[in-house]
TrEMBL record:
Name assigned to this protein: Diaminopimelate epimerase
Recorded catalytic activity of this chain's protein: (2S,6S)-2,6-diaminopimelate = meso-2,6-diaminopimelate
GO terms under biological process: lysine biosynthetic process via diaminopimelate
Superkingdom, taxonomy of origin: Bacteria
Localization per Swiss-Prot or TrEMBL: Cytoplasm
Taxonomic classification: Bacteria, Bacillati, Actinomycetota, Actinomycetes, Propionibacteriales
Gene Ontology CC annotations of this record: cytosol
Gene3D superfamilies hit by this protein: Diaminopimelate Epimerase, Chain A, domain 1
Primary role: Catalyzes the stereoinversion of LL-2,6-diaminopimelate (L,L-DAP) to meso-diaminopimelate (meso-DAP), a precursor of L-lysine and an essential component of the bacterial peptidoglycan.
Species assigned in the record: Luteococcus japonicus
Amino acid sequence: MRKWTFAKGHGTKNDFVIVRDRHGTVRIDDADVRFLCDRHAGIGGDGLLRVTKASSIPEWEGDPDLWFMDYRNADGSIAEMCGNGLRVFVRYLMEEGLASGESIPVATRAGLRTVQPLIDGRLRCGMGPVRLADEPVTVTIEIPHLGPQGSWQATAVDVGNPHAVCFLEDSDVSLVELDLGREPIWTPADRFPAGTNIEFVEVIDERHISMRVHERGAGETLSCGTGTVAAAHAYARRAGLVDGEVRVDVPGGWVVVGLGEQEATLTGPAVIVARGETWLPDNL
Ligand SMILES: N[C@@H](CCC[C@H](N)C(=O)O)C(=O)O
């Protein structure tokens, strides 16, 4: 058995197991991540945040003394970026006395990001560039034994990680009725060779949308920060908005996205809810 200390946190109920590994000496394989994120046998989470120094990440080419957010989905797969995870990561650094100040830099696989703690307790993350594709992707939800629930023309959006954003207007299905128990399918089938996160959006008013998401590597989650940034920018293109903010409601709460294809922002809450010890079986 291996004894690890951990913390647990969430941002709009997108929840994460946090493991500190400053020098990159802890062996964490896919099975360990699945065990820790298991809601019945482990701690439970949509993903795992390994808190390590960038010097322990061979592919990082910037300042080696930065903290690096090593993100894994609940199924063990690596993702380039996690918006809610970034806020939780910085909340953890602040509470542990590992970082402070008005602007906290974090290295991620999608590049350098900076996070500002706001006076009201929320955190505002610089989310880097947002790239929207021109060619639509068709996304279909298939319900076992019942056939298709619906098909939508999605916009592919790159926020460092991949997304496909579907708008439910002119559709027979409402957001609450969607069955996201299984991964939706997309065509062309080779459009996202490494998989994708898929957002479904309803428009509430000009600066306010509502969203549900099926996350790559985690299934339906109660929020996805990069997904809200992707959804807000896909919506902005449709609505002809070029700047300002869009509020995005998710099942776990709400966040605010600052529009900007060169540097979007994401503002929302982040809390650490537990700290403890866990014992990992040697042969998972
Ligand atoms: N929940 C995250 C995104 C996590 C990674 C995603 N599932 C992927 O594989 O790209 C967020 O808040 O952005």
